[in-house]
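anyone seen this seq b4? input:
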Amino acid sequence: MDSSLKKLTAFMKKTKSIGASNPAAQLLPELDKLNLLKFLDEIAANICDVKLKASEIPDLVNFVVQLSCRYQQFPELLLNELKKILPYKKLDKIENPAKYKIDLKFLGELVLNGVFAKPGVDLLGNCLGFLVQTDTQEFTHVPLLLPFCRPTLFDFVGLVPFSEKSRGFDQDELEELTTTLLTENNRRAVKS
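predicted toks r here
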């Protein structure tokens, strides 16, 4: 693996500008060639600072999965960075609702893809709890929850959406669709 400062610096600049003009998928070939061990914390910070669109999340999730497979310490570093930017305590404030919505979806996808284990599920549960508990009167957080819940409700909670119930899934089909990454305890943590 290459550890030359010039190539590593160029790669780090690319991680700061991940997005439509610089998709994360373009960085995958360089992962095999570069020794990024000393820059993992900076990569985690860059990933958390990036302003994504919902359509760019799958590419970035794939990039993070590949990076996590190569460097076992990366998920912990990324989770620590996510804890810094995601409000999940009662006194926290949501600075940028649009970014929070995308970051929540990103966190959910990382959990579903096996990047984070229990600490990631706990953070996700805390974030969802924060949204529900801090908005009991005006329901201004509903637009932040819906984009997360629509595609991942079944995966995290095991509830079939009304639109899908009309298809008449039987119990065997539902068990086949259920992800094995989340235990019943994980699902209960997200539900509560």
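The domain at 5-191 is CATH 1.25.40.180 (Serine Threonine Protein Phosphatase 5, Tetratricopeptide repeat). The chain has one domain: 5-191. kinda curious what u guys think
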